[in-house]
């Protein structure tokens, strides 16, 4: 029989345990659980923030950069349904560990020249698709309900912090290594290895429920149809903006007259903003039944950031990067609260997460390509592309209203 989760998780239904047993093993299990969760979260977005800072200096072609920006959301959308099968057969803990190992393999492959960069990015995208779907279920099943918002925020904060640290190191490592992008990209191997090691102790705990029913039946049928489409629309459009900004922010700033090294630093500030917004928004949103005020606040903060890039990009680039990161980070993270709040049970949370991320990431995959086409057609990153971003932002707000309603 699999071991039951530690006391930090959802309490066991057994009443035979002594009321005053030793506390040390329980505390150790809780520390391992939180440590593994944080290490896994630190690694989840590291790879996707690496190429933005290198884009202006490393000599990648526009076509290669566009494809490398397209692959992650495309893979995360196409392979999100795989997470349901993984969970049903192996449970959340083993699924997360297996995904961590696959992500580590992808990080290693990315160092082996341009073909390895593409193949490794695909593997990382597949692994991240599984992690993205399983994390809300893991939070629902292994942490007390009152901690759901905090742990969702910790996940987003850790994602942003890990990605920001690595992104900030890209250009300095590239310069110190004699302009070797492979050496810079190899930095992702370290957090990937730590994530696999950190989540490994959770392999002894296996969820006791069977996997989710087919997503079509649980989510897209009957009264759940409006909720599902609202989640898909909101998450897809928000993620489209996030992936596009992550891929092209340094290029937007360089086009506006900001130095290449400074543009890379602004990318790191953007990701730090993502971490801050990703932590605060779910913590605040989880305390309420109705999340629409928080979704509107995210919309306004993102709008301020894009407006700043449009009107005065070279005047206050650090401010716009931080503001935009805070808004988009909050928009990415609050959807985890929506899954947990709207889900009736673990299976329903998994189903909502799967369907929203399948449709959402496929929508998001169009973002980097569309932005590249707009830039090529107009010769600028200013008015046409950024105005389109503002229009997409408004659509995401409209799409969110059903999912945000308590």
Notes on the structure:
- By secondary structure, the chain is mostly helical.
- Helices cover 76% and strands 0% of the residues.
- The protein is built from 16 helices and no strands.
- It has helices spanning 24-43, 51-54, 62-78, 82-109, 113-142, 148-176, 181-185, 189-199, 215-218, 224-255, 260-286, 292-311, 317-342, 346-364, 366-378, 383-404.
- The longest helix has 32 residues, at 224-255.
- The protein is globular and about 55 Å long.
- The two termini are 38 Å apart.
- Residues 9-21 and 208-218 have low confidence and may be disordered.
Question: What's the short story on this structure?
Answer:
76% of the residues lie in helices and 0% in strands.
Low-confidence sequence ranges = 9-21, 208-218
The radius of gyration is 20 Å
Ends apart, CA distance between termini: 38 Å
Sum up the overall morphology in one term. Answer: globular
Helix content bin:
over 70%
Mean pLDDT: 84
User: Number of DSSP helices?
Assistant: 16
- List the helices and strands in order: HHHHHHHHHHHHHHHH
Q: Structural class, please?
A: mainly alpha
Beta strand %? under 5%
Biggest sheet layout: none
Report the strand count: 0
